[in-house]
Amino acid sequence: MVTNVRLDVREGSVRGKTERARLQAMSENLAARCCWKSLVRTLSLSISVFFALAYLVLSLPVASAQISPGPLSRPHQSLNGSTNCASCHKFGGQAALKCLDCHTEIATRLSARKGLHATYNILAGSSQECARCHSEHNGEDFPLIKWDIKTFNHKETGYLLEGKHQGLTCNKCHNPSRISPQERASIKIKDPSRTYLGLSTGCISCHEDQHKGRLGPSCLQCHNFVDWKTINVSQSGQSQFDHSKTRYPLTGLHIQVQCAKCHTNGADGKPQYVGIPFNQCSDCHKDPHHGSFPQGCQSCHSTSGWKKISLQAVNERFDHSKTKFPLEGKHASVDCAQCHAGGDFKKPLVFQKCMDCHKPDPHGGQLAKRPDGGECASCHTVKGWKPSTFTVKEHALSAYPLQGGHARLECAQCHLPKGKDTLFKVKFERCTDCHADKHAAQFSAAPYFNACDRCHNLEGYKPSTFSLAKHKETHFVLTGGHIAVPCADCHKESAEFHPQPAVIYHWKSLNCTSCHNDPHEGQFKERMQQARADGSVAGCEACHATKSWKELSGFDHSKTKFALLGAHRATACIDCHKPPNLETKLMNVDFKAAPSQCEDCHQDIHGKQFAKDDITRCAECHTSMKWKPSLFDHEKRTTFPLRGAHQNVRCAECHKLTKVIAAKTVLFYKSTPKDCAACHGPTNPVPTGKKTGR
Known about the structure:
By secondary structure, the protein is an all-alpha fold. It is 20% helix and 2% strand. The protein has a two-stranded antiparallel sheet with strand order 1-2.
């Protein structure tokens, strides 16, 4: 038994070695032909799991030599051997890698979410994703790191190569001389020329600071990656360098000056940024006045423009109030050259009237016939051209005094502003000279002739002054319920007017249907077209009155095919004229469909005792005047004539037989006995010679 076990183990070892060699060869072939980042990792992990399970179960010295799936690469040669597995692998529970325990420089960057590895979405502190790119146990000469410089995207490192940086070779930046001592201490690799870590994104780590730290550590506030000599500008066209933090803040037109205009090259051939004089304007600008104004340029000028004179400075130097024309209001802000043309201050000026300077007349001579000849000061002041001082009080002296709502209008609402073409002499004889006809010419003819004041006044367009008394003068006198109807319920905006809708006041027809829809859908068309005494069409008033719609004083039922007689006169219309769909109003009733026979409305209470062809004719015994007494002729319609004492006997004394039909008790007549004994009993004497029976 022991011998057999040893043979089985030995054969298993041989088979394991053969299988391992075959799988390792397969791994190397696939890694060379396929994507090494995914397939090699998959095969390596599969081999490791396979042999770990197979040989740990055997737990024999021969099997323990087969635990490792393959030799490590050259950088990890010191970790070869089964005793070093725990250096890279974590056992117990789910197996895990421990790459970041040694490669702390990568772990630090993952935690800080910076650098190339951070873009691969690797969890901080996790080493499981390392094998995706760095596959182990593939032999001593297997490369752990593979670079394709041509396709590598430098943006993934967090630093995009722009401008002149794009054409540089890697070692121009990635060389030991660029790595700071602080970063060098954290990098594990012994040969710094073989690492890409440790570089700073700051410009001065590669480029010499020509300004010796005077302008701060950020070169990009002035320069860019394309051209060192071209200074960055913002969207407004200004330099991004904040000159306001220097001893000479740039203001006015100085902001637009190119840097090289002031920062010229010094003796060393490089631009000067310190030691430039700037206390006086003459340090940069030549004096065009050749020393005539010793007080300095800034006494009259400013950086906003050479031609823009500082009036405040001039006024401090020259007191215009001591002249014949003190500067007041808006005049104080007028540029000197606007009055003193060519800078000639000795030439006398005419200034007695506003029109001496303000030419041509902005009103085109419209006010020239006024007593003051259209002098500007009558309506304006030196404080400003607007607002005018011409008020309602002054307007009262004109040909058109402003009253009512007109007094509250702005001048521009009548005198439409058109600059120099604004009209101040406007037509005002008729309201329509200013106001558009909102009634679409409905009142343009006699007797109104668009006289707005017949319905409106100057206090406001609404409410109208057109009253009920005035409505009596129209072709449609308001009566009954029409008196309480608001105007807008009848006078509504209509689309029949062009080019825009207007409220309708004149109708082609004054029939009721001009406002009201015919709820009867033409059932009474003939009655509605009948002419009244004044020749007008009756319309709805053939039946209804304006006092109330329910008042039907105009409808005569006797002129229909069914005159109302007797009890029918007190019957409600809706009892005969039934509305459809269980409605409670007569709006949708077909009045011509009302029944005209008694049996069409009234139920047969006799249980069809008197029916002929299944129809009981009520009119044979009853009338609409009254239901009782019945008109039934006992002499002609029965075989038992009522004679003698029988003539005074009540019907109920003989007709007592009842039956229940359709859950109702019905009095039956035809089954009444005819023998005397049936009513009088057998002991009652029978007159001699008289026959019995009915």
